[in-house]
Amino acid sequence: MAIVVKLDDLLHARRMTLTELSERVEITPANLSILKTGKAKAIRFSTLDAICRVLDCQPGDVLNWVEGGEE
């Protein structure tokens, strides 16, 4: 897939765990993990909004489009 999820990089930069993010965003750690690993087929705007609010970032910081597939 040409969409790359950069959640790992953002969590590392903010010294935040996936569990902490899941609690603050109110999404299960399992669902957040599916998103983080790039296995999600979709993401709700409300979830993306909450992630951006908690991580103080833009949607483009979370998701990247890479021509030709994976980065």
From TrEMBL:
The identity of this protein, by name, is Transcriptional regulator
Q: Extract the InterPro entries matched here.
A: Cro/C1-type_HTH, Lambda_DNA-bd_dom_sf
According to the UniProt entry, its GO molecular function terms are: DNA binding
Per the record, a Pfam family? HTH_26
- PANTHER family named among the record's database cross-references: DNA-BINDING PROTEIN, DNA-BINDING PROTEIN-RELATED
Which residue numbers delimit the HTH cro/C1-type domain?
A: 7-62
Output the Gene3D superfamilies linked to this UniProt entry: lambda repressor-like DNA-binding domains (1.10.260.40)
Q: Which domain of life is it from?
A: Bacteria
Spans through the membrane: none
Which SMART domains did the record assign?
Answer: HTH_XRE
